[in-house]
Design brief:
534 residues, eight-stranded parallel beta sheet, 19 strands, 16% strand
Length: 534
C-alpha cells in the first residue's frame, strides 16, 4: 500500500479527535439543551480550532436517564436534538469542512422502554425472549447471584410478567443485551450499517469490555481493596467484566465496520494498562484505537509520567497504534487536578506523543469542574451512590462560549448550570488572547500537521531528570525534541545538539536558535525544538 493510500485508509493515525456531548455544546432553540442545529452553527469554530474528527455522545432517541446511553431506538435522532434530515445536513457540512464524524455505539444495553426489551419482557415465549440476560431466582426467591450494578445495589431486577430476573450492569432501566444470541448480534450489525450507510466515519464502542457475562452466573469474589470505595466496588468483577468471550463480540463488530473501507473503531476498555493490548486483536482484528486514559490516572510528576508512558507503550502490540485521552464525559476535568499552568504542558504532551490525541470539549480552554448545586444534579451516579465524588455533571456542564451569564450556550435555562462568568474560561475571550491556552491548542495542532515526525515519527524517550519530561520524535529526515517542565520553578535541561525553537507553551518564543549543552525552561514551560542534523 502506498503512503498516500495508507494515510487515507488509516486517517485516524494522524487525526486529532474532539469529543462533544451534544446536549452541552450549543443550543439553537432556547430549550436549554444543545442540538444538531447548534453544532452546525459552530462548525466554523471546529475548523478554526483544527480538529480532524468529532466524536458525539449518543444522539439517538432516549429517555435520557444517563446522558443518552439508555437508547430506545438505535436508528433514530432524539427529537430534542433534531431530525435525521438535520443529521444528514450536519454530516455533509462537517465533511465539507474536512472533519470526520464518529458516533457512540452502545451495544451492551438498551433502555428498558426499547421495543426489543418490551417484547422480551412480555413473555418467556416471545420472539425476543432470549435477547436479554434472564435468570431464575435463587432458592430464597432473591436475585440469582451477587452481581452488582455500577449505579448501586443488585444488578438484577425482577420482572413479574416473566417471573424472572433480568441483569443490568448500569441503571435498572438499562437491561443488558444477550450477546450470546446471534439475533442480537445481527440486530446491532444492522444498526451499525444504518449509520455507516449514512456516511459516518466510525464508532466509539461504549462499555466494550462487559459485553459477555459468565454463562454459569458464578458469584463475584470479595474485593480485598474495597474499604473506603463505593458499595458497587465491594466485589471483584471477575465474572461480569472483561470475559475472554468478549473479544469475539468486538471481533464481530470490527468485521461489520471492515465492510466499509476507511472507517474507524475505537472503544472504551477497562482494566490495568497491561490488559489494554488484547483489545487490538491477535489473529483477528478488534479495535483500531482502544482508548487509553493513563495520562489522566498518572501522578503528575516527571518520573511518574515517564513510567506511565513507558508502561503503556510496552503494553500495546508492535503493530498497534497508540492513543492518548485527556478528558471525557465521565472523566474529571484534568485542569482541576493539575492546574491551569500545567494544563498547557499537558496540551503539548498530548499533541507531541506518538499516537492519536483525544480531548473533550472545553479542555482546549482549560476548563475546570463546574460546581453543581444539589438541586440541579442530573447524574444518576451521584443520586444513587452519593458522597463518593462520582458525579459527572461538573464535566458535562454546557460549553462556555463567552462571558455572558449563560455563556452564549442558550437563550433559555441551561439543562445544567454554568460557572459564574467572572474569570471563567470562555472561547471568545481566549480567541482574543494570542497567548491563551486555546491559542496554544490551535498552534500545537497546526504544528503537528506541519511536521510528519509529530504525526507518525518514532518515539525515543530521554531520561527524565530535574522535573523535566523529555523525548524525541524522529522521521527519516528530522529530529524533534520535546522538553516539558513539570515544576512551577525554572529548571535547566541538559542535552547535546543544536536546534531551533519551534514553540513554547508560553507562546512568546519562536524560531530562536537553541545552543548546545542546555536550555533553561521557565516554570511550567514546555518547548518543542527542531534539531539540526549531526
Amino acid at each position: 500500500m502506498s503512503v498516500e493510500s495508507r494515510d487515507e485508509a488509516a486517517w485516524w493515525e494522524s487525526a486529532v479527535i474532539y469529543e462533544i456531548a451534544l446536549i452541552s455544546f450549543q443550543d439553537s432553540n432556547g430549550d436549554g439543551k444543545g442540538d444538531l442545529a447548534g453544532l452546525l452553527s459552530r462548525i466554523d469554530y471546529l475548523k478554526w480550532l483544527g480538529v480532524d474528527a468529532v466524536w458525539l455522545t449518543p444522539i439517538h432517541k432516549s429517555p435520557f436517564r444517563d446522558l443518552g446511553y439508555d437508547i430506545s431506538d438505535y436508528c433514530s435522532i432524539d427529537p430534542a436534538f433534531g431530525s435525521l434530515e438535520e443529521f444528514d445536513r450536519l454530516l455533509e457540512a462537517l465533511h465539507g469542512a474536512g472533519i470526520r464524524l464518529i458516533l457512540d455505539l452502545v451495544p451492551n444495553h438498551t433502555a428498558h422502554d426499547h421495543a426489543w426489551f418490551v417484547e422480551s419482557a412480555s413473555s418467556r415465549n416471545s420472539a425476543k425472549a432470549d435477547w436479554y440476560i434472564w435468570a431464575e431466582p435463587a432458592e430464597n426467591g432473591g436475585p440469582p447471584n451477587n452481581w452488582l450494578s455500577r449505579f448501586g445495589g443488585s444488578g438484577w431486577e425482577w420482572c413479574e410478567a416473566r417471573r424472572q430476573y433480568y441483569y443490568h450492569s448500569f441503571l435498572v432501566e438499562q437491561p443488558d443485551l444477550n450477546w450470546r444470541n446471534p439475533q442480537v448480534r445481527a440486530a446491532i450489525a444492522e444498526t451499525m450499517r444504518f449509520w455507516l450507510d449514512h456516511g459516518v466515519d466510525g464508532f466509539r464502542v461504549d462499555a466494550s469490555a462487559v459485553l459477555i457475562k459468565d454463562r454459569l452466573l458464578r458469584d463475584n469474589p470479595p474485593n480485598p481493596e474495597a474499604e473506603g470505595k463505593p458499595p458497587p466496588q465491594r466485589n471483584t468483577t471477575v465474572f461480569t467484566d472483561d470475559r475472554p468471550e468478549t473479544m469475539d463480540c468486538i471481533e464481530f463488530i470490527r468485521e461489520v465496520i471492515d465492510g466499509y473501507p476507511g472507517r474507524m473503531l475505537c472503544g472504551e476498555v477497562q482494566g490495568k494498562t497491561d490488559r489494554i493490548g488484547h483489545f487490538y486483536g491477535n489473529d483477528r482484528p478488534r479495535l483500531h484505537l482502544p482508548l487509553n486514559f493513563a495520562l489522566l490516572d498518572s501522578k503528575w510528576d516527571a518520573l511518574s509520567l515517564q513510567a506511565t508512558i513507558d508502561a503503556y507503550l510496552n503494553a500495546i502490540p508492535d503493530d498497534g497504534w497508540p492513543v492518548w485521552v485527556i478528558g471525557g464525559h465521565d472523566k474529571q476535568r484534568v485542569a482541576s487536578k493539575i492546574g491551569e499552568a500545567q494544563m498547557r504542558v499537558l496540551a503539548m504532551l498530548l499533541m507531541t506523543l506518538r499516537g492519536t490525541p483525544f480531548f473533550f470539549m472545553g479542555d482546549e480552554i482549560g476548563r475546570k469542574r463546574v460546581p453543581i448545586p444539589p438541586g440541579r444534579v442530573h447524574d444518576p451516579f451521584e443520586k444513587l451512590v452519593p458522597g463518593y465524588g462520582l458525579c459527572r455533571d461538573p464535566e458535562r456542564a454546557p460549553m462556555r462560549w463567552d462571558d455572558s451569564p449563560d455563556g452564549g450556550f442558550t437563550t433559555g435555562r441551561p439543562w445544567l448550570p454554568l460557572e459564574s462568568p467572572d474569570g471563567a474560561a470562555n472561547v471568545a475571550g481566549q480567541q482574543r488572547d494570542k497567548r491563551s491556552i486555546l491559542a496554544l491548542f490551535r498552534a500545537l495542532m497546526a504544528l503537528r500537521r506541519e511536521h510528519i515526525g509529530l504525526q507518525r515519527g518514532e518515539y525515543e524517550p530521554l531520561r527524565s531528570q530535574n522535573d523535566v519530561l523529555a523525548y524525541k520524535r524522529l522521521d527519516d529526515r528530522n529530529e524533534i525534541l520535546v522538553a516539558l517542565n513539570i515544576a512551577a520553578e525554572p529548571r535547566k535541561f541538559h542535552w547535546q545538539g543544536r536546534g531551533r525553537l519551534l514553540m513554547s507553551t508560553h507562546l512568546d518564543r519562536q524560531a530562536e536558535p537553541v545552543p548546545d549543552a542546555s536550555i533553561l525552561l521557565r516554570g511550567n514551560e514546555g518547548v518543542i525544538i527542531a534539531l539540526e542534523p549531526r
